[in-house]
DNA sequence: CTACCGATCCCCT
DNA sequence: GGGGATCGGTAGA
């Protein structure tokens, strides 16, 4: 699939794009190796009306990337600790984005595990040798399918941060990019549900079924 | 300038 | 089931 045809897909209405994103691949390619995860959980944010969206305050320094071209990255920091990846969607001027909430690791499991450990050690202010050992042990025994089961974990597993914002996720020359579903992939059974962690948004936004998951997949967040 | 709080995750009880 | 970590965005003084 060409970059232009992918761009056309991501420029369509966001609620049509979200299910299409499931099954696509999140790739981190570098000379040392390749990390690949299958996207299994996403959430749509349809600003500026959507009171759960970062674009609910209109176009600000933070939300500006969402107003731009579809297929580019919007990475934000939550709770002062976790970088979360969105794909900008819809036409230019519509501040829409889709949050990648979970991926199923397919390649580069060791590198993904190492990145999770590195991120966790970096985020802790003070830690003794016992803490380091405890973190290494915990992530060391985490099943591969749970290593990127959550938006903060996706960011950590793929070494993402806000400097990625604005980069073209549809350009395969970029270290971090998206790839189409492999040819011959089976048809997915998709479920919808309410978005998580947005109680602050109130009615009717909390109840919108704008979370999309691959039914039964073991890498979906809990 | 200060105050408040968040699209999360981990640990303990 | 509940609290802490940690910091940037936004609003209001």
Q: Any idea how many domains?
A: 1
Reported for the largest beta sheet, the result is: 8 strands, antiparallel
Q: What CATH architecture label applies? A: Roll
Oligomer: single chain
Characterization of the model:
This protein has one domain (3-105, 160-214): Roll (3-methyladenine DNA Glycosylase, Chain A), CATH 3.10.300.10. The longest helix has 15 residues, at 109-123. The chain has 222 residues and is an alpha+beta fold. The protein contains 5 helices and 8 strands, in the order ααβββββαααβββ. The structure holds a DNA duplex (13 and 13 nucleotides).
Topology:
Elements: H1 3-10, H2 14-21, E1 25-30, E2 33-46, E3 73-78, E4 82-88, E5 96-107, H3 109-123, H4 129-140, H5 151-157, E6 176-179, E7 190-193, E8 211-214
Helix pairs in contact: 3-4
The chain binds a DNA duplex (13 and 13 nucleotides) through strand 3, strand 4 and helix 5.
Give a nutshell description of this structure:
The chain contains 5 helices and 8 strands. With 222 residues, the chain is of the alpha+beta class.
Provide key terms for this protein.
222 residues; alpha+beta; 23% helix; 3-methyladenine DNA Glycosylase, Chain A; single chain; DNA-binding; 8-stranded antiparallel beta sheet
